[in-house]
Amino acid sequence: MSYIMVDIESAGPIPRDYSMICFGAVLVDEKLDKTFYGKLKPISKKFDSKALSVSGFSRDETEQFDDPKQVMLDFRDWIQTHSKGRPIFISDNNGFDWMFVCWYFHHFIKENPFGYSSRRLSDLYCGIEKDTFAKWKHLRKTTHTHHPVDDALGNAEVLILMKKEMGLKISLK
Fold first, then answer.
1. Going by CATH, does the domain composed of 2-166 fall within 3.30.420.10?
2. Strand 20-27 to strand 2-10: parallel, antiparallel, or no bridges (unpaired)?
3. What proportion of the chain, given as a percentage, has pLDDT over 70?
4. pTM for the complete prediction?
5. How do residues 40-64 score in pLDDT, each as one tens digit?
6. Segment 70-87, tens digit of pLDDT
7. Alpha-carbon distance 37 to 16, whole Å?
8. Where are the domains positioned within the chain?
9. Which residues pair with 18 in a beta bridge?
10. Shortest CA distance to 23 belongs to which of 10, 42, 41?
């Protein structure tokens, strides 16, 4: 199994009504050198200016982004190339990130290489600490910039630290 840390930015709170603007992924291994970045053309006319501003892109800029189907096909191929065994989706906020990625996979290419489940980094950390309110974001090495590759890298660094220094039993291939 391979863990793939994912982070997305969107133009609103839910897929279909709003668009996923961009996303980043990193294969969680010792090197953290296998990354994916996709920028997707909007699928809806609706957007929340505040949500869109987090991505750092204007609506006009997003109109020039890539075809969502092609981006999802490219991401699927990247996952298949870099994953050993079943890929496992993990993110900081998988309720949000998973919702968009899963919907886009099924809508555009009729399959999700991650299957039907995901993991949440925060819950793993809270379990180690035995505290549902434990804070972990200070453990990131890569600055959280809202560029999804940076954010996925920072979160992957925390997962590796949890394995090496906190005793999390996890196989990172």
1. yes
2. antiparallel
3. 100
4. 0.96
5. 999 999 999 999 999 999 999 999 9
6. 999 999 999 999 999 999
7. 20
8. 2-166
9. 15
10. 10
